[in-house]
Design a protein that fits this description.
about 525 residues; alpha/beta; 9-stranded mixed β-sheet; 5-stranded parallel β-sheet; about 30% helix
């Protein structure tokens, strides 16, 4: 099976059924299939071939879906990127994956236009919008001029259908290669796990489809099950406005990150719920730790249990999910889905018995590896098992509890941030001698970025002065919320900065509170 056949099969059976709703636009499955054929034929006419990388700087939109399927139908590889990245971050990623084509909205092209000529791999730019009309190819024009005929060739199941850059540093990128087979398997598992059908209305809000959770669990799983996807723009839309769309469209499923559900709880407690949400049957959270308190308060106000799922980009999407009937163990991210195995191992890779803490490793439809980085791949895939870098415990009933992280990652509103990105930028400030970046627990966001800075001898600087260099070079969510000045940084016996000691000195509480496991 491949994604091309998946969409064509659903379009053949459910052609007139609405696939995507966005504002006043409604696309049927036939519309989606035929328009993505037009996108594919346009790309082929441009010289795109199997294996070419196509970079996408697009927000949630019907065009994202059309272009994504158009790319995979050609056998090329979509590379969805975060539109909030600054030029330096994008340059690092472009230089890693060497895209042949860039597809972007006008607003995302603006900062790139002066430097685009420096990226020799990019032969064509497709613009969604008209700000640079005549300078770049217009999306609407190429779609209108292209044929809707199907592409004859079929991608092989093992062909790469997605290249996603994960929580590793943007400046030291690790591109996760996901195959057609793995993506289809995970879409099927996700839909089955949620008991999703063609009667479901999936709400897509504040969960970017350039992120694996939005792309796989929302988009691909919904298409596989012939559900309808309602795309609600995240920018400038309040929770109240979103709930009004659920009522209007009779939404049945809502997937998101803990931050969004925390906002929903906060809104309910302050303002009450003014909309009829009786159509909703399932809400599920993933992407970051979900507190037991949010689950409790969500049920109190919305009437049913918020499901908690866990996974990672290297494992395609989610590996575990709490019980659909709400009877799961509080604090647990649930049990493994049907095609997944989960083990807890010690530092030597030996499996540990139930209720003992160790690294979580998984086996199933994992990534093919990191793009052009066999050494990094070998560090995390051993004998067919993916070493996740998360620390956890599995109880006697198979429920997984996350208790910490071995890998150095900060998760902000479900978005993974690597501290070295920020440390690299801070080190460029002429007044900074050294810096260490840590995650600080935050009730609403999960974590925020904190930077501990040591200034060069005789220098004086303000928080805003230090933040400015980050604002100029990093996506906004990576910019430290707190700058803490210290005379020196503690170090381990081997000379590395001791971040555990920093956390102790600053009395920063643990991110993962203790929960009852047995």
């Amino acid at each position: 099976m491949n994604l091309k056949l998946m969409l064509e099969g659903v379009a053949g059976r459910y052609g007139k059924k609405t696939a995507i709703v966005s504002d006043d636009l409604r696309l049927s499955y036939t519309d989606l299939d035929e328009t993505s054929n037009r996108a594919a034929n346009a790309l082929i006419k441009m010289g795109v071939k199997k294996g070419d990388r196509i970079a996408m700087l697009l927000s949630n939109s019907p065009e994202f879906v059309i272009i994504y399927f158009g790319i995979v139908k050609t056998g090329a590889i979509p590379v969805p990127l975060d539109p909030k990245y600054k030029v330096g971050e994008l340059a690092s990623l472009f230089n890693d994956c060497l895209p042949k084509v860039l597809v972007a909205e006008s607003s995302e092209l603006e900062p790139l236009v002066p430097v685009l000529s420096g990226f020799k791999s990019i032969k064509r730019v497709i613009e969604l919008g008209s700000k640079y009309k005549g300078q770049f190819l217009g999306y609407q024009e190429i779609i209108a001029a292209s044929s809707a005929r199907r592409i004859d060739s079929e991608p092989a199941p093992e062909d790469i259908a997605l290249l996603l850059y994960t929580s590793a540093s943007s400046f030291r990128p690790r591109g996760v290669m996901l195959s057609h087979r793995s993506l289809v398997m995970e879409a099927v598992m996700s839909g089955d796990g949620y008991q999703q059908t063609d009667k479901d209305i999936m709400m897509l809000f504040a969960l970017p489809v350039y992120h694996v959770f939005g792309l796989v669990a929302v988009l691909l799983a919904s298409i596989n099950k012939a559900s309808t996807i309602v795309i609600v723009p995240g920018s400038g839309i309040s929770i109240n406005s979103f709930l009004a769309v659920i009522e209007r469209e009779r939404g049945t499923m809502w997937l998101g990150v803990p931050y969004i559900f925390a906002l929903a709880v906060d809104m309910a407690e302050k303002e009450g719920i003014k909309n009829d949400l009786s159509s909703l049957r399932l809400c599920a959270s993933a992407g970051a730790p979900l507190s037991v308190d949010i689950i409790r308060r969500f049920k109190q106000h919305y009437g049913f249990t918020l499901m908690d799922c866990w996974g990672l980009t290297e494992a395609v999407c989610h590996v575990t999910c709490s019980s659909l009937d709400g009877r799961g163990k509080p604090g647990s991210v649930g049990k493994a889905l049907s095609e997944w195995e989960v083990r807890i191992v010690d530092g030597n890779g030996r499996e540990l018995p139930p209720n003992q803490s160790g690294e979580v490793i998984v086996r199933g439809p994992i990534m093919e590896g990191y793009y052009n980085n066999p050494q990094a791949t070998a560090e995390v895939i051993k004998n067919g098992w993916l070493y996740t870098g998360d620390i956890g415990v599995v109880n006697e009933k198979g429920n997984l509890f996350l208790t910490g992280r071995k890998k150095e990652t900060i998760i902000i509103k479900g978005q993974n941030v690597h501290p070295s990105d920020i440390e690299d930028v801070l080190s460029t400030h002429p007044k900074v001698a050294e810096a260490a970046v840590i995650g600080i627990p935050d009730e609403l966001r999960g974590e925020v970025v904190g930077a501990v800075v040591v200034l060069k001898k005789g220098e004086i600087a303000t928080e805003q002065e230090i933040k400015r260099v980050c604002l100029e070079n990093l996506a906004s969510y990576k910019v430290p919320k707190q700058i803490i000045f210290m005379d020196s940084l503690p170090r381990t016996a081997s000379g590395k900065i001791d971040k555990a000691s920093i956390r102790e000195r600053l009395s920063i509480p643990p991110l993962f509170p203790e929960v009852a496991i047995s």
